[in-house]
Amino acid sequence: MEYRLGTGLKIKDRGETVSLVCPKCGKKVYFHVFSNIENRLDASFPFIDTKNVYFLICPKCAAVYTVDEIKGKTFSNGEKLSIGNFDLKTLKEFKNGNC
User: Fold this and answer.
1) In sequence order, which residues have a C-beta less than 8 Å from that of residue 2 and are 6 or more positions away?
2) Model pTM?
3) DSSP letter string over 57-91?
4) pLDDT digits over 34-91, tens only?
5) CA angle, 72 as apex, 54 and 19 as ends, to 5°?
6) What value, to the nearest 5°, has the Cα angle with vertex 14 and ends 11 and 17?
7) Which residues of 74-84 are buried (b: 16+ CB within 10 A; e: fewer)?
8) Phi/psi at 19 (nearest 5 deg)?
9) Under a CB-based contact definition with an 8 Å cutoff, are residues 28 and 20 in contact?
10) In angstroms, rounded to a whole number, what is the distance separating the alpha carbons of residues 72 and 61?
C-alpha cells in the first residue's frame, strides 16, 4: 500500500505527543509528529493552494495516522495536549494512476 503524505521534499520533525493509546497495537506510546507541505493547483488566484500535512508514527508497531491541520498547527506552536486519541485518523490509500 502507498500513502501520500504531502508533496514537499522535506519532512519536518515536530516532536512527541503526550502518552496516547495506539489504535492498532493498543499500547500506550508517545507518537512522533511530522509535517510536510502539500501543494495543489487551484482554479482561483493565487492558483496554488499550500497547506501542511501532519502525520504521527507509532514507535511500537509503525502505524501511521494523520490529524487535522488545525490540530497540527496548535501542536507545533507548543500545545502538547492539542492531539488526543480521538484526533487520530487512518490514512486513505493512495491510488496511483500508473498501476
Assistant:
1) 93, 94, 96
2) 0.74
3) E-TTT--EEEE-HHHHHHHHTT-GGG--GGG-EEP
4) 888 776 676 777 777 677 888 898 999 888 898 888 888 888 888 888 888 888 888 7
5) 95
6) 135
7) bbbeeeeebbe
8) -65, 120
9) yes
10) 22
Cell 495536549 locates to 81
- Taking only the tens place, the pLDDT of each residue in 17-44 is 999 999 989 999 999 898 887 766 767 7
Closest Cα to residue 74, out of 54, 99, 49? 54
Residues with Cβ < 8 Å from 23, sequence gap 6 or more? 63, 65, 85, 88, 90
What pLDDT, on a 0 to 100 scale, did the predictor assign at position 2?
46
- Side chain identity, residue 56: L
